[in-house]
Amino acid sequence: MNQKTLLAVVGPTAIGKTRLAIALAKHFNTEIISADSRQFFKEMRIGTAVPSSKELTEAKHHFIQHKSIHETYSVGDFEKEVMALLHRLFQEKDTVVLVGGSGLYVDALVKGLDEFPEVNPKIRKTLNKRLLDEGIESLQRELKARDPLYYDQVDLMNPHRVIRALEVSISSGRPFSSFRRKHKTNRFFQTVYVGIDADRAIIYDRINRRVDSMMDEGLLDEARQLHPFKELNALQTVGYRELFEFFEEKCTLDFAVEEIKKNTRRFAKRQLTWLRKNEHIIWSNYADPLEKIIQRIKNEIGASND
Q1: Where, in this chain's numbering, is substrate bound (predicted)?
Q2: Among 66, 53, 55, 63, which Cα is nearest to 96's?
Q3: Would the annotation count 173 as a binding residue?
Q4: Is residue 180 predicted with pLDDT exceeding 90?
Q5: pLDDT score of 99
Q6: pTM of the predicted model as reported, rounded to 2 decimal places
Q7: Is position 101 annotated in a ligand binding site?
Q8: What is the average pLDDT value for the chain, to the nearest integer?
Q9: 273 a known binding residue?
Q10: What are the pLDDT digits (tens) for 256-300?
């Protein structure tokens, strides 16, 4: 009996993961699970590059815009719900596609969740006050000093994640990264990582053009509607924070758009830094023919089942 396979499509933002995931879903007659935590929220369509209506009809997608920004939704909730779904899907399918740019959520499914020590609430309160008084840059610098490994992985523009790492590090006296992935959880499926890459100049150009396209599609209006809720965790992300600064007359619109591009490029760089440490990823160039990529994946699955 063939082993069940989760195809995890990974790569930097704007590289074409959705296109490949749909091609894989069609080829293997299966469904797609999104592990992009920004795309969970129904109010955030344009700024998170949610697949188009046409793309969503080409293959069945799960965990796309299924939550509201006003709901509490954690990586633990995601892992629990996806594992229940995988148990159902794998009853009928040999292969399921996982796609997304949120490494924490991909790892939660493949490796299981990490266990962290208790945190002193006073530390969190102090860090939140520092965020208000000094800005996120102060917290970023401390995180870099305390845990350079996690600094290279985390979305540095998300204050909740930066504060979470700092509070664990300060409470325990150990880097946040030292608590991660100590014990891999045994899963009932194998995971084949499928990576897409390109030269840095190409990635950065694709990011810049995507941001321009988002603005043309109405990102400014979408962000304006969300501005009253800017303190919510879901909105602590690139593409919205910069426009909130514009609404508050702290910068020009042109500057805000350039900041979105710059911060997205930085995020893509951190994504690749993290992914390239995974020696199990089957890398392909974004311009490779889909047929070539699919054949490499089939060969890998076949070798695993021999």
Answers
A1: 13-18
A2: 63
A3: no
A4: no
A5: 97
A6: 0.86
A7: no
A8: 93
A9: no
A10: 999 999 999 999 998 898 898 899 999 999 999 999 999 999 999
Residue range 121-179 in CATH 1.10.20.140: yes
Q: Flag whether pLDDT at 159 surpasses 60.
A: yes
48 annotated ligand binder: no
Match 């609404």 to its residue by tokens. 247
Locate 243 and state its tokens.
Answer: 């426009």
Do the domains 5-114+181-305 and 121-179 sit in the same CATH topology, yes or no? no
Does the annotation list 18 as a binding residue? yes
- Report domain extents, the chain: 5-114+181-305, 121-179
Region 5-114+181-305: CATH code: 3.40.50.300
